[in-house]
């Protein structure tokens, strides 16, 4: 479809330090991404700038230095640790005579390699098509004019316009298929909700050890490796607790500046995180950039509207840090907020189960609601849960209802009502207390 230079396994990396903290990336992380993509770095170009150059991103002098390194190392791909515009990619490819990728394209390529399920492949393709739609002109520079001549006169479209139309059609087709997948996932979620089992989701920075922890807790066989984005397709298993069970979901790892196209394409997958009753935020406590990674995960959770869900911090890989033993940290009320463990060495897993049990197994919500007559259908839901403690009516016909039920059930009802039930709260006696 496109006239591109053949990509190989040798790459020259480009990393620029900007004065703006929000635009900075991590060179070590880029090298891990390149390794995860199956490429080999043969050179690194670094520099500092206040702002990207409009033509080459790195400036004319640095661009010429890059072209010389590509020629000297016989590299066949250049990978930038930043987001490039289509024009910058085109200019750099013309100068370096090899394919030029930015950070977003690299991450999309890794996701394409990792996708295993039908849904995952559709999501990756959708993200790639959205990203590619702004870069089509690079592949059709020889067909920018309308066809002409005997037998070549077309309907008035240039080849580029025809391709864009086909691309839009493919995107619509994938969206329709993903909507069906989303409905299937929604049915599965409703079935799990009816089983009264709490939903717990693993989240965290990529390569923090989520899949290893998932396998150890549930005896699953999810692919786990010391590489970025080893997990792509979500997996759900039953998590045995000291007094009951929960549904545990292993999800894709987050990364700083996660491409927006990926967030949009993986809406159905990320829904497992948004619908969870508790998030296990897994952290690699041996990573020097631990605090920065935590901030990046919180930023992604906010972007997908999951930042309000209760979290339990799971500090993993304590076997790599001297002087740390398995433990549960509690707040002033005795509520667990952090667990120290090693999934690889099977240390502290019982403590994690205990903490999860306390947070989702025995947490009770006690509330007083003023439900108007037009919303009387909610009464039946509370009756089915045997949650009504007291009921009376005011002069306007509103039902003043005192309820006591597991916090997971309350959160589920609130979600199903799309937040309407929460607007009826007039008093919270003991908001969320542990029995």
UniProtKB/TrEMBL annotation:
Keywords: Coiled coil, Cytoplasm, GTP-binding, Magnesium, Metal-binding, Nucleotide-binding. The keyword Metal-binding applies. GO terms for molecular function: GTP binding; GTPase activity; guanosine tetraphosphate binding; metal ion binding; ribosome binding. It is found in: Cytoplasm. Residues 198-364 form the Hflx-type G domain. Its main location: cytoplasm. It comes from the Bacteria. Mg(2+) binds at residues 211, 231. One of its GO terms (cellular component) is cytoplasm. Residues 164-191 form a coiled coil. Its cofactor is Mg(2+). GTP binds at residues 204-211, 229-233, 250-253, 316-319, 342-344. Monomer. Associates with the 50S ribosomal subunit. GTPase that associates with the 50S ribosomal subunit and may have a role during protein synthesis or ribosome biogenesis. Belongs to the TRAFAC class OBG-HflX-like GTPase superfamily. HflX GTPase family. This is GTPase HflX.
């Amino acid at each position: 479809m496109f006239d591109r230079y053949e990509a190989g396994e040798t790459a020259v990396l480009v990393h620029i330090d900007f004065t703006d903290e929000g635009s900075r990336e991590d060179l070590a992380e880029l090298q891990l991404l390149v390794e995860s993509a199956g490429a080999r770095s043969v050179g690194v170009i670094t520099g500092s700038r206040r702002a990207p150059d409009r033509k080459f991103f790195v400036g004319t002098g640095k661009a010429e230095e890059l072209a010389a390194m590509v020629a000297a190392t016989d590299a066949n791909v250049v990978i930038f640790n930043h987001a490039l515009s289509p024009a910058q990619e085109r200019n750099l490819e013309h100068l370096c005579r090899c394919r030029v990728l930015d950070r977003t394209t690299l991450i999309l390529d890794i996701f394409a390699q990792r996708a295993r399920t039908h849904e995952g492949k559709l999501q990756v393709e959708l993200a790639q098509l959205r990203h590619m739609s702004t870069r089509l002109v690079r592949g059709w520079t020889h067909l920018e004019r309308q066809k002409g001549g005997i037998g070549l006169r077309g309907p008035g479209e240039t080849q580029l316009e025809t391709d864009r139309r086909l691309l839009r059609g493919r995107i619509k087709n994938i969206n329709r298929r993903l909507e069906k997948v989303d409905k299937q996932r929604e049915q599965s979620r409703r079935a799990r909700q009816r089983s009264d089992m709490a939903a717990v989701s693993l989240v965290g920075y990529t390569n923090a050890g989520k899949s290893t922890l998932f396998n150890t807790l549930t005896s699953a066989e999810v692919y786990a490796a010391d590489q970025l984005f080893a997990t792509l397709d979500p997996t759900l298993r039953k998590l045995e607790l000291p007094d009951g069970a929960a549904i545990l979901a292993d999800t894709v790892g987050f990364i700083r500046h996660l491409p927006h196209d990926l967030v949009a394409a993986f809406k159905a997958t990320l829904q497992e995180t948004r619908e969870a009753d508790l998030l296990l935020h897994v952290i690699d406590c041996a990573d020097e950039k631990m605090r920065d990674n935590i901030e990046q995960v919180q930023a992604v959770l906010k972007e997908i509207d999951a930042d309000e869900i209760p979290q339990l911090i799971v500090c993993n890989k304590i076997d790599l840090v001297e002087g740390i033993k398995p433990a549960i940290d509690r707040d002033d009320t005795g509520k667990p907020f952090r667990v120290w463990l090693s999934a690889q060495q099977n240390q502290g897993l019982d403590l994690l189960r205990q903490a999860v049990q306390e947070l989702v197994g025995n947490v009770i919500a006690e509330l007083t609601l003023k439900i108007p007559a037009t919303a009387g259908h909610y009464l039946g839901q509370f009756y089915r849960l045997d949650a009504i403690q007291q009921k009376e009516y005011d002069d306007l016909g509103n039902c003043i209802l005192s309820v006591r039920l597991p916090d997971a059930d309350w959160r589920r009802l609130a979600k199903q009502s799309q937040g309407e039930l929460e607007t009826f709260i007039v008093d919270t006696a003991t908001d969320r207390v542990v029995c």
